[in-house]
Design goal:
Layout (H helix, E strand, L loop, with lengths): L4 H7 L3 H24 L9 H14 L1 H4 L2 H22 L9 H18 L2 H16 L1 H10 L2 H20 L13 H24 L6 H26 L4 H32 L4 H26 L16 H25 L4 H9 L3 H13 L5 H26 L2 H24 L2
Length: about 425
């Protein structure tokens, strides 16, 4: 078989580049060998893995002279050696049937060859990830062992939402105003599910920890609204007197910190969807986050001695039904934004932001960031829309806390959320 001209051009290189590629292959082989030597692998260790990587690189370097079949022949010879080694190993009484080292050997050979004929950065990144996977065996086994059936279900449903549904959706616009793109709508669903899943994992990791500050941080990642409702109800269950005051101080700290963390979540969404306009849209949000951080510090001074109990359990963040509901809500917000802009211009977007932000700030944030990224609205208009939605959401959560909480909590929430909203309105009116 005659190698193609393009393939030959990919493997022809000067002497300096050749030595650089060989050095990278040697380095990756040493990393793999170091990890395998540490776990006392009987198959290959600190010397064998570098040799295997260099062997793969050498086979790739000989392609211009002998053809690409030599790389496959090298892989076949290595697989034959592994087969012989395993047959010998299986005769021993304490033989380990695991295949990790065998796969690592073949991967190291492939990395050595790909370093020569492929993208150097990709090969190095793949090698680094492979070494980390080998090194993190014990922690990964502990995490999997500690996972419940519900946790595994969350992961599998996340795979369904991301890997199964997303690729089959059409990437073109439909409907009124040509704004309903199924692929891009579901892409926003995947983003929100990913953020929720990260909060879910954080809550699981923090389950054994205590402290109101941590409760607020993780609660804000999971759901600041659910955290607000949960701790407001708890404050009402406290007995009167000092116990109720202590419960109100704890609930206030958790609720204020969770609301501050929800701002960070919004900024992450803007950074992912509209990175070019993050400075313009994220700056006023960052100012409000700084103000909320000061209020959180003040609340911490009064509630730091209190001990948070358990975080709100919450549902599976990757369930298909909530994902579909968010997708429908996001599509509805997109239509509302398109209709308002078409009929009333930029001024018509503010009522939409105000109303949609009352219960869910994610949908209006993502739709606004997408509009700014597409150049359909100015970045400063997008910043005001998102900030208005955030303030509406703050007012909604404050109202929930005052309705559901104790009298002691109502007084504290009125103070802290009043200051938060006042600061937010000042930023909204004065920011240039």
């Amino acid at each position: 078989m005659v190698p193609s001209a393009g393939f030959l051009r990919g493997v022809r290189m000067d002497l300096e580049t050749t030595f650089f590629k060989l050095a990278l292959a040697l380095g990756l082989g040493l990393l793999m060998g170091l990890q395998r030597q540490r776990v006392d692998s009987r198959l290959a260790g600190i010397r064998t893995f570098p040799l295997i990587a260099l062997f793969g690189a050498l086979m790739a370097l000989t392609v211009p002279a002998f053809g690409p079949w030599l790389v496959a022949a090298g892989m076949l010879a290595l697989a034959l050696l592994l087969l012989i080694a395993n047959l010998i190993k299986l005769r021993q009484p304490d033989a380990n049937p695991g295949m990790t080292s065998e796969v690592a050997v073949l991967l190291t050979y492939g990395l050595g060859a790909y370093l020569v004929v492929g993208h150097t950065e990709a090969a190095v990144a793949l090698g680094g990830v492979s070494v980390l996977l080998l090194y993190l065996k014990a922690p990964m086994h502990r995490i999997v062992g500690a996972m419940s059936d519900r946790d595994v279900t969350a992961v599998m449903q996340f795979a369904l939402v991301t890997l199964v549904v997303l690729p089959v959706l059409p990437d073109r616009s439909f409907g009124p105003y040509e704004v309903l793109n199924p692929f891009r709508i579901w892409l926003m669903v995947v983003l929100i599910v990913t953020i929720n899943l990260a909060g879910f994992v954080a809550r699981k990791l923090a389950a054994a920890q205590t402290g109101a500050l941590l409760g607020g941080i993780v609660g804000g990642l999971v759901s600041s609204t659910a955290t607000t409702v949960s701790y407001a109800r708890r404050s009402r269950g406290e007995a009167g007197g000092s116990a109720q005051a202590a419960g109100a101080a704890l609930a206030t700290l958790v609720i204020v910190v969770a609301s501050a963390m929800s701002l960070l979540r919004v900024m992450v969404e803007v950074a992912v969807v509209a990175p070019r306009h993050f400075a313009a849209i994220g700056a006023p949000l960052g100012a409000l986050l700084g103000w909320m951080a000061l209020l959180s510090l003040l609340a911490w001074r009064h509630g730091r001695r209190q001990k948070a109990e358990t975080l709100p359990e919450g549902g599976n963040p990757a369930e298909l039904k909530p994902a579909l509901l968010f997708g429908a809500l996001y599509a509805l917000v997109i239509l509302a934004v398109a209709f308002a802009k078409d009929r009333f211009g930029d001024a018509g977007l503010y009522p939409v932001a105000l109303l949609s932000g009352l219960t869910d700030v994610d949908a209006i944030t993502l739709s606004t960031a997408n509009l700014a990224n597409a150049g359909r609205i100015e970045a400063d208009v997008g910043a005001r829309l998102v900030l208005l939605a955030v303030l509406a959401n703050l007012a909604f959560k404050g109202g929930c806390a005052m309705v559901l909480g104790s009298s002691a909590l109502r007084a504290r929430i009125a103070l802290y959320f009043g200051l938060a909203l006042a600061g937010g309105v000042a930023i909204l009116l004065l920011w240039r």
